[in-house]
Predict the structure.
Amino acid sequence: MDFALEQDQKDPLAHFRGRFHFPETKTGKPFIYFCGNSLGLQPDTAEQYIKEELDAWKKLGVDGHLKGKRPWLTYHELLTHYSAKLVGALDREVVVMNSLTVNLHLLMTSFYRPNGKRKKILIENNAFPSDRYAVQSQLKIHGNHPKEDLMILNPDQGETITTEWILDCFEHHGDEITMVFIGGVNYYSGQAFDMEAITKKAHEYNCLVGFDLAHGAGNLHLKLHDWGVDFAAWCGYKYLNGGPGAPSGVFIHERHLGKSDIPRFEGWWGHDKSTRFQMPDEFVPTTSAEAWQLSNPSIFSMAPLLASLELFHEAGIENLRKKSEKLTSYLEDLLENELEDEIEIITPKSIEDRGCQLSLRLKTVIPNIMDELHRQGILADWREPDVVRIAPVPLYNNFEDCYQFVQRMKKIVRG
């Protein structure tokens, strides 16, 4: 406990904890909130930002599009630079719009390009179900087989799919694969994939590469532009703390922007801004990722996400990642030293191969485990059949949270 308190006192990011609202137990004490990989906490300015837009609507009506503190016409642009910094992109490569799976379909409409034998999509085993549903439906729409043309990377070491195993797949099947679509961090195991190495190898075989970064954005230090990733998308409600159903972010590498040969679903919000309101019959796309926009954005949904992204910008993703590595390693050490006989950590041990999530497999079934955690003042996450997912988020969790979690977990598993 002394070590945890000492680390918290030395933490230069400690003050950000006070910028978030923690759910409270029946006794009025804050929960140990290790569920940021499912839904992030509410930033302290989120309510104010939503209220400001409600007030603008009330007082300005339609004039709110051009007047007010944050005009609605360009509101989504307020999120662009912050989002680009988080994922290592140029501003013109990023846009925030829609929800995650909607954006994945829009992107795959552009980047899934089957041609003869080269028609398969490569995904990881245990991909998030929505990703699997999305790629299978894309296969069917193109007349391909949803199972036979879906190439699944199975683990070669426990729950882990090693980088070597993935790269070897291209050596044997690269001429059959047209698109790679992998979760940057697997939602179940917490494994972070080597996106740079995967992208480089895939491009050697002329495969386009996309990542679902729902568990990567705001968690890892990403460099999508430098890595050469073709496209990516992420949600705004997990690590990015934008609230339930918060808008999704999209990345499209600049080499694909302004190209006339890329198929794309189109809507008027993706039209060239200088002539958009002249209502021309012919679509003229913007020369940025905004060309993939269909409709004007939901301002009330973007407001709390903006509140959180401002905090990320202030803290710096590099600084957050450094703290995350220390925080997660400390929690891992506590679990291994004090609960080794009761819990197996299935997340890779190497800090390069994971974010802040640790997936814990219980060696003995504990009935109603989530209720027990709740009674102990812990909010975590369960995935069938036997995994508790915990995420010490560096923006608002601390070392004392980690220590207290393990002490309370001992009470649960040992009765």
Observations:
- The chain has two domains: 2-30+317-414, 51-313.
- The longest strand covers residues 177-183.
